[in-house]
Structures are given as structure tokens and as C-alpha cells.
Amino acid sequence: MIRFATAIGWWVSLVPAHTTSNGKPLNFRTYDASLRFPKSMLGRVDAILAEVKSMRDQGFYVYDSDPYFEEIRRHIHGEPLTWRDRSGGVCDSPNLYFAVLPNADMAVCCDWRMPSKISVAAANFPEIYRKKSTFDEAQSVASRCDGCLYGSFPEISISARYFQPMLKRALFFGKKPPDRQLAKLSAEQMLQIAADIRAKSPHLYRQVATNKAEPKASNSEELGQ
């Protein structure tokens, strides 16, 4: 996926699966505990994260910062997240970011909702947003969260509070010509790129090929006719 994204000019950010319990429903998290990596696979996960970081350093289009990679590792290992430590253990919603629901209501983030109904479509939204009560309400909700790795939230906080990622982001977005332009490709060209990448790593697809279901025999074939 990273090789394909780089070939077409698309930047990739990793987001690990997030789970929760039935007693604590959250909008972007699954109840399926089988999506958590077992302890026997943690070494392999760490190796893959190191490989992706190496690909990023080689020039592949991976956007994630070093602190974010470490937070992914902590999340998968079941360790407490630390990216919010520089803001008192609470994320930066609504100061640096917040979510907007399909009906235009403001939300703390993907998972958490505001108790009050605040519409970003309202003419006086800027005034309401700047009120201390709005910030206090959002922070009160955010303080109940254990943290997430939905890239767009932690990466913004990391970029604002960690010097090296901040510097790299400034250089990234200030570069001319920018590296973030999509290539102009037809569907056929993209399919060929995907086929070429697949051909170079057949071992990754062998399992898929051998697991294909055999065509079901017709009734006449089953009867030997």
C-alpha cells in the first residue's frame, strides 16, 4: 500500500484498530476484541513499525512522525499513551481541532460528543466557539478519554508541542515545489502500478492465491453427468 501510494503521490498515515467495551460505547471503536494483536505477535508488529519508519526515511510517502510511531507501539502493546502529557493529560480539543458531524454540529472528536448542541453552520458560531464555556465543556468531555491514535488529532498536538516534528512539518509544507501533488494517472495506469508492485512481492500474495475457493460444481458435475 505504501509503495502504491507513493507511486501515485498519496501520503499515508497509519491508524491502528481501536476497541472498546459494550459498557463504554464510542463512535469510532469496535467491540470486536479479536482485532487486538495477541502478545505472540507484538514482536512482529514492532518489526513492521520499524520497517515503515525506515521506508519513510528512504523517501516513501509516510507522513507519521517518530513520536506518533512510538504511540502506535504503546497503543498496540496496551501501554498508556503519552502524547497528551504536554497538555496536562488531555488532548487539545477544541483549541487545535474538533470534529464536525454530518448535521454540522460541533463534536469534541470522532468518539466523543458535546453535551450542548453547537452548530458550526450558525452565523454566530465564531462567537460561541471563542467562549470559555465552550472550551470548558469540550475539555471536560476530553478529560474522560484514555487517548486515541486517530492520526489527525495526535499528530496535530505532536506538531504543536514537539520541536522536531514541528520543524519537519514546517519544512514539509513550505517546500517548493511541494511533494504532495497527486500524479495524473488513468485507471489503467494505476492498475498496472499495482500489478507491478504485486509481481515484485509474490510471497505476500501466495496465501491469498492458495485460499481462493474452488468453483462450485454444478449438480450435473456432482452426479458425474
**Quick one: how many beta strands?**
2
Tally of contiguous helical segments:
10
Low-confidence stretches: 216-225
The gyration radius over C-alpha positions equals: 22 Å
- Span between termini: 46 Å
Beta content: under 5%
Structural class: mainly alpha
Strand arrangement, largest sheet? Answer: 1-2
Largest sheet: 2 strands, antiparallel
What integer is the average pLDDT? 90
**Helix content percent band:** 40-55%
- N-to-C SSE string, H for helix and E for strand: HHHEEHHHHHHH
Counted up, domains total: 2
Shape: globular
Please describe the structure with a list of short key phrases separated by commas or semicolons.
two-stranded antiparallel sheet; 42% helix; mainly alpha; single chain; 225 residues; 2% strand; globular
Give a description of the structure.
This protein folds into 2 domains: 1-86 and 148-225, no CATH class; 92-144, no CATH class. It is mainly α. The longest helix has 17 residues, at 42-58. Strands 1-2 form a two-stranded antiparallel ribbon. α1 packs antiparallel against α8 (187-200). The radius of gyration is 22 Å and the shape is globular. It has 10 helices and 2 strands; from the N terminus they run αααββααααααα.
Compact description:
With 225 residues, this protein is an all-alpha fold.
Secondary-structure blueprint:
Elements: H1 2-8, H2 42-58, H3 66-77, E1 99-100, E2 106-107, H4 125-129, H5 132-142, H6 154-161, H7 163-174, H8 187-200, H9 206-210, H10 219-222
Helix pairs in contact: 1-8, 2-3, 6-7
